[in-house]
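Attaching the record inline, Q. Sequence:
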Amino acid sequence: MSASSLLSLKQTSIQFGGLKVLTDLNMEVQSGELVGLIGPNGAGKTTVFNIISGIYAPTSGELTFRGSSLLGKKPFEVSREGIVRTFQNIRLFSTLSVVQNIGIAMHKAGPYSFWSAILRSKKYHSFEDQFLFRAKELLEIFGLSHLAEEEAGSLPYGIQRRIEIIRALAASPKLLLLDEPAAGLNHSETEELMGLIQKIREQFQLSVLLIEHDMKLVMGICEKIFVLDHGEIIASGRPEEIQENKKVIEAYLGSESANV
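Structure, as predicted:
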C-alpha cells in the first residue's frame, strides 16, 4: 500500500455458497481522490461497497483504511472509522423534516448517554442544539436552507438525492461512498450533481468513491476509474485510458460508446 493510500483492498474475494462474487480484488483510493467504480449490471460493484462498509465480510484477502484493518468490523464501527455511504435507493426518513434527517447522522458523535436522551437532560439539549446548528449550516452551504423545515418525503426526487448526500457529509466522513447517485435523475439534475460532488471533495477535503452508470458523470469528474466485470478488475486508470481500453469497450461501454 502506498504512503498516501486511504483505502486498500488486496486480493479480496467473497463467495456465497459455491458462487464466487468477487475474485482477488486489488483496489486503492488515495487521500483526496475522486474515484469511479464501473461495470455492467451484476459485475459485483455494490458487493464491493458492502464489503468496505462492513455489511459483508470477505472470504479472503485484506481490507485496510488509514493503515488499519477493517476486517471483522460492523457497519457502525466502519462509520466511526470515517467511511460513510449512500445507497441506490433513497433512504431518507420521509416524514421527518430535512434538518432532522441531517441531524440524525450526527448522533454517532453524541457524547450523552441513553438516559440523558430519555430524560432530556441539559447535556442532551446542548448537543442537540449543536447538531441542529451544524445541519442548518450544511444546508446553507449547498443552497437548501429554505427547505430546512420541509418534510423530506414531499420534495422532488433530485432534491432528496442531494439531501441524502448532505446527510452523509454530516457524519464527518474521511471517505464518502456514493452508490449510483445519479440514478433516476434527469439531465439537468445530473449536471447539478456533478458540481455538488466536486464541491464536496474540494470544500470538505475528503475522498470519494462512486458507483455510477452515467458515463458522462464518471468521465467528467473522476480522476481514476476501476472497471469490474464478473467480479474481477479488468482495467484501471485515467478516464481517457478507460475510454480506449478494448476490454472495457467489449464488457461495458459497447463498441459504439468508445468515444463517450
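The longest helix spans residues 122-141. The beta strands are 5-16, 19-30, 34-38, 60-65, 68-69, 83-85, 175-179, 207-211, 224-229, 232-237.

More tomorrow.
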